[in-house]
Specification:
nine-stranded mixed sheet; alpha/beta; 2 domains; GMP Synthetase, Chain A, domain 3; 23 strands
Length: 490
């Protein structure tokens, strides 16, 4: 344990809101319990965690990082990467994780916007450059509103926004979920999610750490490897693609999941057919929840009670949600409108974008999510659509405007419309419909011109058309395009 002990500041014993203090206290209680197990090997026990994190924190400070500085990280998933995140919290830094699929061109945008003191990314520092022996390090005191992380969300205009999350935002959400999902002694989590977004970095990692639970650590999702680990696990958190791939495996049967306690799904809508097939195959009802970068988890189906397919459950304790019209007036229960949310988990705004923060916040503190929802008489929420053109492919958010701007810049393109269409594995796939001034322009040429976009943003198909459908006001009718191409991958 650091000199100050869990929850204590180095200045004289005052309680610190630093999230790492909660982690350190849980680690001390867990003792010799394995924290990270990878490929069957114990990588780190809980009684070794504090010293290992201290080593990384000391290394960050030795390289000049000071409390409040940004640490930008684009690195493949690893145990060391998880320790680096905890070290950033402990040293009072602001952790800025990036999707590993972002290209060098995209990376430069994030660097310019975040202005980090240290960068762990290709072409910059390598994570291995920070390896340090276990050490003693006084956890830097943080206030509840001090920033712990900035996570970038895709922008509808092509410009990403950094959501500022405080220590209190993250702590409150983690502690609420620990109770709501009934984390218990002996739980073992299969961690197969990336650790650059809310689901893997906060929901899964925090849940296991604050419960002192072993994590069976997977660099990425592999259905056979995950099925093999179920024999010694109790919890799996995943995106819908995880569950469709499990169901596609002949090895995944009721016996394989017999020892599991909880399956959680989020980051994208879960099809009712997947929910029902999963229950038929295993006897387990998947617990679907709803969250977003700006607030972590917002709603969840109950642990005890009806987990209803097609819904995301109820607002979490301590939070509030309402369904409103465009003017912010709350609608009668059962009517579809825009979901607005509020709670201790709600972010502090967009990094250096007070204009966007003001645009998406109501005067009474509710955030306009942009998702279309209904709320039943008992408060249960169902997400039924989106006000924005967001595409969710494999659990990753993709905004068409960024891709359209890149396509429209290619010589020979007249205009483009990017849509999401149903995909059996990804949930949705990116498809571009393009009109051209140069008839020689083909799909391969356009895809080559989009190489600076992260792979997950690049269209799975590019279709050419004589014109794009428009309404009386001249606006492209993307709903008509989605309907026309909905069977493209079936």
């Amino acid at each position: 344990m650091g000199k100050d002990g869990p929850g204590r500041s180095a200045e004289g014993g005052a309680l610190s809101a630093n999230l790492y203090c909660l982690v350190a206290a849980a680690a001390a209680a867990a003792g010799e319990t394995p924290a990270f197990v990878e490929n069957g090997d114990i990588r780190l026990r809980y009684d070794e965690l504090d010293g290992a994190v201290a080593g990384y924190a000391a290394a960050l400070v030795a390289r000049g990082a000071q409390p409040g500085d940004r640490l930008l990280v684009q690195a493949e998933k690893s145990v060391e990467g998880a320790l680096l995140y905890l070290a950033a919290l402990r040293a009072g830094l602001i952790y800025v994780p990036l999707n590993t699929a972002y290209t060098a061109t995209e990376l430069e945008h994030f660097i310019a916007d975040a202005e980090p003191a240290l960068i762990i990314a290709p072409g910059h520092l390598d994570l291995a450059d920070l390896v340090a022996p276990p050490a003693d390090f006084e956890t830097v005191p943080r206030g509840p509103d001090d920033l712990a992380a900035i996570l970038y969300t895709s922008g509808t205009t092509g410009r990403s926004k950094g959501a500022m999350l405080s220590h209190a935002n993250l702590s409150s959400n983690a502690l609420t979920l620990k109770d709501y999902w009934h984390w218990q002694a002996g739980d073992v989590l299969i961690h197969a999610l990336p650790i650059y977004h809310v689901h893997g970095l906060f929901v899964a990692l925090h849940g296991a750490l604050l419960n002192g639970s072993t994590m069976l650590w997977h660099e990425s999702f592999n259905a056979d490897a995950v099925i093999a680990d179920m024999a010694r696990a109790t919890i799996l958190m995943g995106v819908p693609t995880f569950y469709t791939r499990l169901l596609a495996s002949p090895a995944f049967a009721r016996a394989a999941a017999a020892g599991m306690r909880l399956f959680v799904s989020g980051s994208a809508p879960l099809l009712e057919s997947t929910f029902e097939e999963f229950e038929d195959r295993t006897g387990h009802r998947i617990l679907e929840r709803y969250g977003m970068t700006e607030a972590g988890m917002i709603c969840s189906n109950p642990y005890d009670g009806e987990r209803m397919p097609g819904t995301v459950g109820f607002p979490l304790p301590g939070g509030a949600a309402r369904v409103c019209d465009d003017a912010g007036r709350e609608l009668p229960r059962g009517e579809a409108g825009v979901l607005e949310i509020k709670g201790p988990n709600l972010f502090k705004g967009y990094w250096r974008r007070p204009d966007k923060t003001a645009e998406e916040m109501r005067s009474d503190g509710f955030l306009i999510t942009g998702d279309i929802a209904t709320m039943a008489a008992d408060g249960r929420v169902a997400i039924v659509g989106r006000t924005k053109d967001l595409i969710i492919a494999g659990g990753l958010n993709i905004y068409p405007k960024e891709i359209e701007l890149a396509i429209d810049a290619v010589p020979g393109v007249a205009e483009s419309a990017v849509i999401g269409v149903p995909h059996p594995d990804l949930g949705e796939a990116v498809v571009a419909v393009v009109t051209r001034t140069d008839p020689a322009l083909d799909e391969a040429m356009l895809l080559a011109a989009l190489a600076d976009l992260a792979r997950f943003k690049q269209p799975r198909r590019i279709l050419f058309a004589e014109s794009l459908p428009r309404n009386a006001m001249g606006k492209v009718q993307k709903a008509a395009l989605r309907e026309a191409h909905k069977g493209l991958f079936s």
